[in-house]
């Protein structure tokens, strides 16, 4: 069991620039060494081309659509190549739309795929319902076949995922727009809003993982750092308050990546501009490598 690290320095689908700097900041602060020290065998597959956010004055409700689609296609290629070599991709974003590319790439080899969407948002807006036109808040909508046809068709099938193969974990209801809320209520996705967790998020993470493992042969994990409380670790591009604590989020992450069916891990929404002295990124790397330590133990047992 070996991992392939892929950097996606893109803020094409973001609310503003900054996230394109994350792979460099994580590498610079020693991510690779920390993962290896945690016992993981990791091959560095390098970074895709840098794509920096630019406002789109023409397509106001589909901001930078062609760039977002292009990046997702490149991610799908890189992920598929890694899987061909039997590496489990660890993908460093970049904004959340890169997960569409990760899923598209994984599906080429494993159609029986489930996704844990560990995120402070449900990302269910579409160009029809959006106020911003920013694709970063539309990822899940496109996974289930809604929204922009080009983006929803980046993979080998449409829709990319059946709704019952998606678990939304950690989204905050106060971040959900009324139109999203209607989609969410009617949907067959498994939902764990952060407001339902009380003092047992880790127990619920295990339950969520088990429910998905029952349905799918492989499990991809999307981890948006905005699922963590910005009052505690303000790394996310778009701050979220009243969210999971840093510690609880890392314990949940550890449960998710501990799945014997782990197919890929995506980390999104780190904006190094929020961390000028680099201290938060280093703190993040320590905790992140710690969360992945059990994966190394699993690998040794395989
Ligand atoms: Mn988010």
Explained architecture:
This protein is an alpha/beta fold. The chain has one domain: 3-Layer(aba) Sandwich (Arginase, Chain A), CATH 3.40.800. The chain contains 10 helices and 8 strands. It has an 8-stranded parallel sheet, sandwiched between helices. Helix 3 (65-84) packs parallel to helix 4. The protein is globular. The termini are close together. The model has no long low-confidence stretch (mean pLDDT 97). Bound molecules: manganese (II) ion. Residues 96, 119-121, 224, 226, 269 line the site of manganese (II) ion.
Overview features:
302 residues, alpha/beta, Arginase, Chain A, 8-stranded parallel beta sheet, 10 helices, 15% strand, binds manganese (II) ion
Element layout with pairings:
Layout: E1 2-7, H1 22-28, H2 31-37, E2 42-47, H3 65-84, E3 87-92, H4 98-107, E4 113-118, H5 139-143, H6 149-152, E5 166-169, H7 178-186, E6 190-192, H8 201-215, E7 218-224, H9 246-257, E8 262-268, H10 279-301
Parallel strand pairs: 1-2, 1-3, 3-8, 4-5, 4-7, 5-6, 7-8
Manganese (II) ion binds at residues 96, 119-121, 224, 226, 269.
């Amino acid at each position: 069991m070996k991992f392939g690290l892929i950097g996606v320095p893109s803020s094409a689908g973001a609310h503003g620039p900054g996230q394109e700097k994350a792979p460099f900041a994580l590498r610079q602060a020693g991510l690779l060494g920390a993962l290896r020290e945690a016992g993981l065998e990791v091959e560095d597959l390098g970074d895709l081309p840098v794509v920096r956010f630019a406002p789109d004055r023409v397509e106001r409700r589909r901001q930078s659509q062609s760039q977002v689609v292009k990046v997702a296609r490149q991610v799908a290629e890189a992920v598929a190549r890694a899987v061909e070599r039997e590496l489990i991709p660890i993908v460093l974003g970049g904004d959340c739309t890169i997960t569409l590319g990760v899923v598209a790439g994984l599906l080429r080899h494993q159609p029986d795929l489930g996704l844990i969407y560990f995120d402070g948002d449900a990302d269910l807006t579409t160009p029809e319902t959006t106020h911003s036109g920013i694709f970063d808040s539309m990822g899940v909508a496109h996974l289930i076949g809604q929204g922009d046809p080009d983006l929803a068709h980046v993979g080998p099938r449409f829709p990319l995922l059946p709704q019952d193969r998606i678990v939304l974990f950690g989204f905050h209801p106060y971040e959900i727009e009324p139109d999203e809320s209607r989609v969410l209520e009617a949907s067959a996705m498994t939902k764990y809003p952060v407001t339902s967790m009380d003092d047992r998020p880790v127990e619920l993470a295990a339950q969520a993982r088990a429910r998905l493992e029952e349905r799918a042969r492989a499990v991809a994990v999307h981890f948006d750092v905005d699922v963590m409380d910005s009052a505690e670790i303000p790394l996310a591009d778009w701050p979220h308050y009243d969210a999971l604590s840093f510690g609880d989020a890392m314990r949940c992450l550890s449960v998710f990546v501990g799945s014997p069916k782990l197919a890929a891990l995506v980390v999104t929404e780190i904006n190094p501009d929020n961390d000028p002295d680099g201290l938060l990124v280093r703190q993040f790397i320590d905790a992140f490598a710690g969360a992945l330590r059990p994966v190394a133990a699993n690998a040794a047992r395989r």
